[in-house]
Amino acid sequence: xxxxxxxxxxxxxxxxxxxxxxxxxxxxxxxxxxxxxxxxxxxxxxxxxxxxxxxxxxxxxxxxxxxxxxxxxxxxxxxxxxxxxxxxxxxxxxxxxxxxxxxxxxxxxxxxxxxxxxxxxxxxxxxxxxxxxxxxxxxxxxxxxxxxxxxxxxxxxxxxxxxxxxxxxxxxxxxxxxxxxxxxxxxxxxxxxxxxxxxxxxxxxxxxxxxxxxxxxxxxxxxxxxxxxxxxxxxxxxxxxxxxxxxxxxxxxxxxxxxxxxxxxxxxxxxxxxxxxxxxxxxxxxxxxxxxxxxxxxxxxxxxxxxxxxxxxxxxxxxxxxxxxxxxxxxxxxxxxxxxxxxxxxxxxxxxxxxxxxxxxxxxxxxxxxxxxxxxxxxxxxxxxxxxxxxxxxxxxxxxxxxxxxxxxxxxxxxxxxxxxxxxxxxxxxxxxxxxxxxxxxxxxxxxxxxxxxxxxxxxxxxxxxxxxxxxxxxxxxxxxxxxxx
Length: 486
Known about the structure:
CATH superfamily of the largest domain: Histidine kinase-like ATPase, C-terminal domain
CATH class of the largest domain: Alpha Beta
Strand order of the largest sheet: 2-1-3-4-5
Number of helices: 14
Number of domains: 4
Largest sheet: 5 strands, parallel
Shape: elongated
CATH architecture of the largest domain: 2-Layer Sandwich
Radius of gyration: 34 Å
Helix content: 40-55%
Oligomer: single chain
Strand content: 15-25%
Structural class: alpha/beta
């Protein structure tokens, strides 16, 4: 069995002699001891990579305290280090172990056999640690998904083979580049904020433009990013995983384009039918018997429901095809809410219902939003609230905000939604029966609301209202204007 080379870094002759005696008496011929007295000498010695372990005293002529360990560990990450210190300091011992030392022994307290046992255990633990790291590196390099690792400055450190193959880019062209240079579609501020807080980030159907690489065309990918946090709870970089969905996305666009043409072509005759029904009900073609008026009213409502479904379908196709371009600007939500309520006031009056907004000027922080998309979302929620609330009831909009979030509440006094149907609310094409009414739509309205909130980096959820009714909660990130520098 070959001897294990041990490097003792200690300027005390008596301590060095004691360690040499212990290794000889307790370890027999298992260890070969070499000694240096300074940190500088230790760094030179360890360059030959032949040492199995380093025993480090923190108080050296050219370095002292925890900085001694940090300096050695930062340069030699693959060798186990056991600290042999004269300081019996539990806090220091904890901090050094947390930063990567295999053990912390106090001179004069630890026994000889414990020193030998500690050395053997430290070498084995480091061997297992390095083996696990090699496995992790193998998984990273040869995983079928495209993976990028970047540092705290968001510069790319390395990519795996799948990324280079999928995007036809040489490693030299990628390494060292800023993450946002290669992935301009990823929102920089939002990603940085999430990762610095220790949160992950994910987005689907992101367009990735490699405009500086002639051999690689733009791609559409699902993106997931995870932060890497060190022992001090500091952000040190991250991992970005890309799933190339370009082909699937293109097929989906072609399918949606065909469906959009069909929906558009169906809308025109339905609009014509609606106009004829209205003329008949206004007696433009002569008086109509009362029983026929009831039948025509039923046809008119059914026709209107079909138009509503087609409108949502066309809206859905515009989002999924990428034709719906959102214009994000700093917005105050209260004026948008007030305009939507004004639009629905005639309907509320007709049904003897009340629309109420309890949001005061200046209560809500601004958000980054597209006015048309948010208007569509609010109109959909208000329409549903009026539709499923009885005559004489009130539809109420409230809001609140703090430094980070802005929340809007749209509440009604309807019959609410059964618990077993709540999970279907935001799914496309899901039909749910609410109370005694059958929804006239195919469920696309709330699905589109969820899509709009997702595009605004927010969320929408449902909550039951007591004693009866529904509350839909919109949660936006508050917008903070960038500081102006001169």
